[in-house]
Amino acid sequence: KAAGTYSITLTNADSQSATLGSAFTYVSMAQLQWQRGTVSPNPPDPDTFGPAAINITHTYTLKNVGNAVSSTVTVSIGGTNATGWFKGTDTCSSSALAAGASCTVQATFLGGGLPTGAYTATLDVTATSGGSDSNTMNGSVP
Description:
With 142 residues, this protein is mainly β. The protein has no helices and 10 strands. The chain has a 4-stranded antiparallel sheet, with no helix packed on it. A 4-stranded mixed sheet has the order 4-10-9-6, with no helix packed on it.
């Protein structure tokens, strides 16, 4: 539905009706969403890095699937093993994202410098007027 002011019409069982003009206002909203697919730049959720004893970088695409400009976007890596990842090139953070617009963020699994084991983290995005979304990242070092 397009943003704007709308009327409400109520109809009862015997087909009598009444309309209240300008009864409510629909406000456009931003909605941030990691784009998911099978290959970069739209890795799946969860996204698997490895097993590998090298650094591996994946590029993620964020899209505003809502119908309004978002507030300032913040992207971070969080979760259990966040230090096993590095956030690289980020065209999303510190900017607003227009309706239908996309940006990208690179996340690198630091498998070349981690001890043997399994590592899990999330690529998180937030914007006050745009909500939040996460994409799980799993990496392992043999």
